[in-house]
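Re: the multi-chain job from yesterday

Posting the exact lines I submitted so nobody has to dig through the queue logs.
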Amino acid sequence: MDSERGLIFDIQHFSLHDGPGVRSTVFFKGCPLSCAWCSNPESQQGTAELLFFRTVCAGCGSCVQSCPNGALSMGEEGVSMRRDLCAHCGACVAPCPRDARSLSGRMMSVGELVEEVRQHWRIFMQSGGGVTCGGGEALRQGAFLRTLLEKLHEELGLHTCLDTCGHAPWSVLESVLPYTDLVLFDIKHMDDKQHRKGTGLGNRMILENAARLGRLAVRTIIRLPLIPGFNDDEDNLRALAAFMRNNELPSVELLPYHAFGASKHEALGKVYTLRARRKPHSQKAEDILRASGLTVEVAGR
Ligand code: SF4
Ligand code: SF4
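And the result, structure tokens for all chains:
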């Protein structure tokens, strides 16, 4: 594992939703889960990827000749792309006059990232903010994450958050804790089978890691992406509340479902399978969790 360079797909500054104050959020590429509702589906694969937004494409054909691998061709229905031939080189991005193409994922060094977020140091200090490492799953690039967090926390004195899906060996999670002020920890479902159905993997490792964080009194906020018909039922909410109470995890944040990721699924050549017909039961979830003695926040309120 490279401790100095990592694959990043985005950096968002002035973020207000990934920890206290005003923050810069660094998005690591690659995730062990493949959640159907993922709002950043370009985060899932651990390599660079090309997004092609067909609805924006003007059909001018400027991109076709730029591809060194013959992955693009012009037909009656416009540009088509053979993803099996695409080497994610990005050569077709610049020729496009409509910004219909973008390459997601670039290797960045710890020094480059530190330099970029350092520019916002004053606003971090004024607002009580800092830097959040999310994804994708940042712990997948554990050595790199550790070096980055250590630099931000120890040398720059910044407040640091880790936003994680929780599916990582404990040794990797434990290695970054000395340099992490707050862990934002997703629990998607309390039932192993349902978790596997929605995310592709079971929840055993995730729950074990969450319980350990609670026992060690690591400052942790559990995050529940509230997906209609998947995890907003009373049984799951009561099971989550019991688990949190039993493991000394007092705070939960609800992240109500939205379908913002649908167009990106299509742009990656993936099928967006989740078409929720109703909004999640946010108020009911909030009431159940609050009645269990937990501190509850709802994102976006
Ligand atoms: S990213 Fe490179 S290989 Fe892929 S379609 Fe564009 S030019 Fe071709
Ligand atoms: S260059 Fe852009 S607008 Fe033109 S065909 Fe290619 S993707 Fe479409």
